[in-house]
Amino acid sequence: MDEPISKPVAPPQLDPRMKVGIIIIAVIAALILLVLALTRLSDRVQGGPTPETIATASLESMRAQNRLVPFVARYVSVTSSKTSRFGFSSERTLILPGDVRYELDLAKLQPGDVSWDASTKTLSVQLPEIEIAGPDVDLTKAREYGSSGLLGTVTDSRTQLDQANRAAAVADLRKQASAGVPMRLAREAARQAVQRSFAMPLQAAGFADAKVVARFPTDGTTGDERITASLTYNEAIEQAKRRQAEQNGN
């Protein structure tokens, strides 16, 4: 019987090129929108803007950015598949790298998610959960090894093993991206970016002692719930082929 078995042959490793990817252009655009909003509010509010009006303007500016990508990481999956038939066996191994984006959907922020405590001079922001987008697999760096032997000569076992490996590799990349350490790093990067976006206008308006505290729904809990926008195996492979074709066309 033909029984492909997919299994990791090496522990998943986080690529050292993991980096924080704050979108500078989006932040600058948000600050420009914020300045315009504060100018209009200053004309309407006697004595200048209050922390509440500044927070409202900041919120609208951030919502206009739509999505923030505070963190990007590259992972490498190593998978192996084996099949046996007629007393012969065939085994193939795939090494597949892929990039994963950790995104924050700023459009989900609502006025009720932002509150000002005058007694502690603290602005609290309830964030939506981080979303995992990808993986964007890099087919140019993919490597496949193994010998199909006699079994591969008389059957299509090599094709079956390669397909099994690729599906398992994409699933493994998503699993690595969802691990506790990268999720914590992504949340912290997002938290700092949002806190700066709210704190800078407050400080510029003279509220130097104001604090901004951003929290995720799972902060302080043992759970690790998250929303994923991960690609399926077929989508990941097709997306990689399109990128490769565009690069070759250039």
Question: What's the structural blueprint in terms of helices and strands?
Answer:
Elements: E1 5-8, E2 13-14, E3 19-20, H1 24-44, H2 51-65, E4 67-85, E5 88-105, E6 114-117, E7 122-126, E8 131-137, E9 143-147, H3 149-154, H4 157-177, H5 180-204, E10 211-215, E11 227-230, H6 233-249
Parallel strand pairs: 7-10, 8-11
Antiparallel strand pairs: 1-4, 2-4, 3-4, 4-5, 5-8, 5-9, 6-7
N-end to C-end Cα span: 46 Å
Question: What characterizes the major β-sheet?
Answer: 8 strands, mixed
Low-confidence segments, given as residue ranges, are 1-25, 149-154, 222-229
Q: What helical percentage do the residues reach?
A: 40-55%
**What is the element string, with H for helices and E for strands?**
EEEHHEEEEEEHHHEEH
Task: Please supply descriptive tags for the structure shown above.
250 residues, alpha+beta, three-stranded mixed sheet, 6 helices, 11 strands, 30% strand, elongated, disordered N terminus
